[in-house]
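Hello again, I could really use a second opinion on something today. I've been staring at a protein lately and its backbone has me curious. Can you walk me through what the tokens say about the fold? Take your time with it, there's no hurry, and the full record follows here:
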Amino acid sequence: MFGIPMRQMSGQRYKRTNFDDDDTISNGGTPPAVDFHPGIVFKGGLTLWQRKTTLEKALIILLILLAISLIVIAAILAVRESQLQDLRKGTDYCMTPECVTVASSIITTMDRSADPCKDFFQYACGGWIKSHPIPSGHSRWGTFSVLWQENQLVMKNVIEKVSVKTRSNAERKAQDYFVSCMDKNKTVEALGAQPLLDILRGLGGWGISNKSGTWQQNAWNLQTAVEKVHMIDVSPLFNMWVGGNDRNSSSNILLVDQSGLGLPERDYYLNKSITEDKVLSGYLEYMTTLGMLLGAEDRNATRDDMIKVIEFETKIAEITIPAKDRRDEEKNYHKMRIVDMQKQFPFLNWLQYFNSMMSVVNITLKSSEEVVVYAPKFLKNLKAILSNAKSSDDGKNTLNNYLMWSVVKSLAPYLSKPFREAKKTFTQVMTGVTGNEEMWRYCITDTDVVLGFALGSMFVKEAFHGASKAEKMIDEVKMAFKKNLPNLHWMDDETRRAAIDKANAVVDMIGFPEYILNVTRLDKQYQRLQINKSEYFMNNFRNLRFALVKNLEKLRKPPKKNAWGMTPPTVNAYYTPTKNEIVFPAGILQAPFYDQNFPKSLNFGAMGVVMGHELTHGFDDQGREYDKFGNLRPWWNNQSIEKFKQRTQCMIKQYSQYKLNGEAVRGEQTLGENIADNGGLKSAYYAYEDWVSKKGEEVALPAVGLSHRQLFFMGFAQVWCSSSTKEADHLQIVSDPHSPAKYRVIGTLSNSKEFAREYKCPVGSPMNPKEKCVVW
């Protein structure tokens, strides 16, 4: 039935009015003049029924029962025929294979026992969560994960095709890398720790292990040690790279930022006991185990040395600026010359450091070269920490151990099974993951990381068949975003016009970069990367240097337009503020996010919201600071900025009230993504409304019992169906700019008056609070 009333959707069920079979009509006790009711009395004292023989009575009862049965059967057949006629006409339900399939998926994913006005995440995803336990080798499992597994299978099938007709050298390198990772000849096991020991020896040795060479404390120099480690694209103490200049998007510039922690986030170190805290003690065990595997002779002595490394990392954590305090791009941007860096942060010879790094691309710098430093306060505080450490032999020993540990941690996963098992044990402590992922899946993902555009070329040719309809959807979402701007009374007219200009200037990149289908251009991209089927460790080590050179050689060149930062099979999307680009890889342009044969309500609710999300990033608390050309500059009226910030405070407060396993979501840290979720939902919904106004209402999905406007919100929610371990939840809260999946659904929908209207949620209910936070 089309358009079931919302009482059913709020957890209540229709009650049919059932009439008893023996209901009678009373007329005051006077029977009708003529009737065949068996209770009528004739003259003489006997009823007609009493005069019948037993056989006659049985035959009469049988005839009555047969008549009733025939009436019931006829009624059923009539109803069924009517329904079949409706289905044949296609007037009531969409009965295409795609509609039937997606309807079934929606129903099995839902939990209809939940009240959508109390907890829409449970209502939309309860069935999925119940039937999808987290698989072995994963700490988190959701719709994204399932789609990625499907993409992995496509990539496995194409990469394992042994054919001399492979079209490009790059694709053959991807095949060879995959073979080296699978290591069916056990080459990795035979080499053991030796490849990493050779690297450590070349870096001057690791005092923990004599097998790594003899570390000479008297000859050790921080400057040289930092340069050597950074030259293999490992970044302890700080991070340096070449990227777009925020204030001049037509040029690249040297960039420096805080770095140096072995754990994902500073919170893992602060106010913790190394021996009592679960994560730190697990980290210590991992460090000690790797030290022993690399040739250390005394476990207790190795453990003591690693404790000092953790204590050093804790000092770095204490000066690391929290993510929530780094959201203002204007405040982060500090351009200075190398000579100015030398005055402010003299713990290194910066000109020597930069020239050492740039020597790999034959570029020589002068002290007047400009650098953007994102964390000058961090570097100033780092100077004091390093000065103190260098003042004693024990401090120098710890510094060397810290630098070498950063290398060991980065490269150990490419060694033999004992190293991988040690990593697995520590990963279980960090994320709660148990068991192992299938090796081929690990290796496909690894190949995507190293040679993703070569592998992506094969993936696209196998599985992607164009995106013209997706391109049209982006245009529709953009139009809805722009149409909504005049309704934002907090924004002044000048800023509104500039916002429309920026939205018009957004560049859409969909599917994959065209060059990957050009053999010559694809081969050129990976020409300098050497891959050998039997050298898994060295393939990765060479890739680090390859990536470093590719990055540093951009310094004297303008930023490449339409350069992709995600590979084609990736199930994700992104926005680049310095280029004002939104990017949607082929990997996500598939069901359940997008299928051109699905109802448009679901496409707009899933993929349309993703598109609106990325578009809104250009106007979140960070993206709004960049103009339509990607330049960081003030282009908003001050009054509009102040009103914008007032609205974002509402959202910070809202999301900070949500808790996962008793731990509060960080509203400031997740602000940008929350703004994008809310703005994306709104733009996509009104884009769908516009589509309906032009194309007409869609026919209903069978058996689901939801209108298409309700299905829009269901499509949005169900792409976030997921489960995760408590450890993974904690890791997300402390380090991820995104809110947990549950609150991406609940937080966003509870701010939507359109959602509340379509699901008839009472004002004041959890999914329809009186006060709503609205930015865009």
